[in-house]
Amino acid sequence: MARKLILIFAGVFMAINAAAYSESIKVNTIGYKPLEEKFVVCDKACSYFAVYDNKGKKVFSNDMKGPVKDAVSGDECFTGNFTQFKTPGVYYIEIEKAGRSAEFEISDSIYDKPFEKVMHAFYQLRCGIDIKSKTGFEHKACHLNPAEYHETTGEEGEIDVNGGWHDAGDYGKYAVNSGISTGTLILMFERYKNRLENINTGIPAEQKIKKLPDVLNEIKWNLDWMLKMQAKNGGVYHKATPLQFPPLNIMPEDDKNTYFVYEITSTATADFAAVMAAAARVFKSYDSAYADKCLKAAEKAWGYLEANLGMVPKEGYKNPDDTKTGQYGDNDDKDERLWAAAELFSTTGKDTYNTYFTANYKNWEKAVDKAPSWREVKEMAMVSYCMSEQAGKSEEACASIKDSIRVHCDTLMARINENGYRNVMSEDDYVWGSNSVALNYAINLISGAEILAEPKYKKGALEILGYIFGINPFARSYVTGIGGNYPLNIHHRPSAGDKNSEPWPGLLAGGPNKRPQDNPLRSLPFGTPPARSYADHVDSYASNEIAINWNAPLAFVLAEFISNNVVME
Ligand code: 9MR
Ligand code: ZN
User: Fold this and answer.
1) Which of 169, 232, 290, 375 counts the highest number of beta carbons within 10 A?
2) Domain tally for the chain?
3) Are 2 and 57 within one domain?
4) What's the pTM?
């Protein structure tokens, strides 16, 4: 009896959590921009679809084409095109036997609020300050005690590493991951300065530096932390974490574990040099003293790298036996060094950096062929060099980067056009944090569009947002608080530990991961295809955690498509 009751309750609970629309009909649950291409995908046999406005009036209909078998999800996909329908409003789609889609909007401003929420999520990830909110997502200042030098540093005593953003679902702070995350946001601001300068990301007025735009306020919060991680010799400590992850339901201010600062690594140092050099450019016109401070720190880090030409430590960072927190280990620092050289050159125009770049960019067969990640930043280097306004760039290097990015973008566009879900990812891309792989591909497409003056690649980037917000096997949004059927049980300590039933908003879940690297993923039926290997379960850190390096490319791609953008046809 008791068991039966539990089952009934479980059933009701699931019904509440399940989408109020058919998972077979996949639309972008946020919506579509009026002048852009618009697709709907259905995983049930069908030949026709109709668009209805929110009063139930049919406003458009067309054939469904297909099916195209999608190997990574196992689905038979039918595709409908309603690009011709451009009238702003709120709509849903009906398909015979499949049901009704999520509601979506047609409007030029669909990504404006999402951008603000995604940037506000960085504010909410801040460490060492009261997180205030009108929406009830709050906590007190955390991790205020100084950290101890771990014995791996060879130093003794305490060090202040207050501030920065928590990395992810845990409260650790890792220099390498801060590198790509902060770097992505800085390059975003540099690229879209005009449209981002006046955006309000919801930082409480009393916690703001008035002379800085909100986006730079947020970036500076983490830069200040990164600066604390630089040792006297210019090297950068790899991370500041406790020895072990705290329990899942603990709020940040209740986590009283001692933090340790770990040994210097060349990957952390080179990422730091790149980020600080780029920061010097974007802060220059708002706070030139701060820009100078960043540039000095960047050049000091470069000095350390010149004095230590090999990997530090030799095999890349590995956790010592007493430590079980995130590793961000990487045994190749060539890409990080190249990125440092590219940004330092772009900021200073100095020969040293240009010479390093031109002597080393050929270390890879292809300049651009991957989505950048915390481990692999060569694409950041190549794109920054190519886009730099500095005189004296090597024409040969730029030509070769351009050729390479064209091939890469064409490859991605072909994948989108051939895939049943119009999805950019190949099977290999379904790794831990796969949603960030898709979004970093979108950044490559946007960069390719800029560098080659080929706006068509931006269409691909927009379709990647379509995947993140609903044109996927689950017809769901992967971002908390945004769009349809978003994740409710993210692996994120404040979401697990606070009293809100809702997860903290604006956070991108890692996404499907073909490797069963946690218990909920191991519990999926045997043979679950890669694109369906996702569990909205709090223990699924390998598919349902959140992280700053996943939210950053989401912010970047949203920034491209907010409403003051020039719309492409
Ligand atoms: O994003 C990281 C992923 O690429 C690795 O495969 C995984 C396992 O090492 O770690 C991920 O990063 C986690 C970090 O180590 C600790 N904080 C949470 C991060 C996201 O899960
Ligand atoms: Zn904290």
Assistant:
1) 169
2) 2
3) yes
4) 0.96
Identify which of 540, 532, 393 has the alpha carbon closest to the alpha carbon of residue 474: 532
Kindly report the protein residue whose alpha carbon is nearest to atom 4 of ligand 1: 432
Residues 329 and 448 in one domain: yes
Please write the tens of the pLDDT for every residue from 38-87: 999 999 999 999 999 999 999 999 999 999 999 999 999 999 999 999 99
Does residue 399 sit within a domain? yes
pLDDT at 7 over 60: no
Active-site residue 491, yes or no?
yes
Contact 90, 54 (CB under 8 A): yes
81 and 120 both lie in a single domain = no
pLDDT tens figures, 253-281 = 999 999 999 999 999 999 999 999 999 99
Q: Is the CB of 470 under 6 A from ligand 1?
A: no
| DSSP summary character for residue 432 | T
Helix (H) or strand (E) holding 487: none
Which residue segment(s) compose the domain that 75 sits in? 1-108
170 is catalytic: yes
Which of 125, 127, 165, 170 is the best mutation target for the ligand 1 pocket, counting ligand atoms within 8 Å of the beta carbon and taking the most? 170
Protein residue with its CA nearest to atom 19 in ligand 1: 168
Using the atom order of ligand 1, give the atom closest to the CA of residue 550.
1
User: 168 and 100: one domain?
Assistant: no
Structural contact between residues 396 and 361, judged by C-beta atoms closer than 8 angstroms:
no
- Catalytic: which of 170, 299, 450, 518? 170
The sign of the torsion formed by the CA atoms of 511, 516, 519, 524 equals positive
Residue 168 Cα: closest atom of ligand 1: 18
CATH assignment at residue 32: 2.60.40.10
Is 322 annotated in the active site? no
In a domain, 500, yes or no: no
| Domain edge (last residue) among 60, 93, 108 | 108
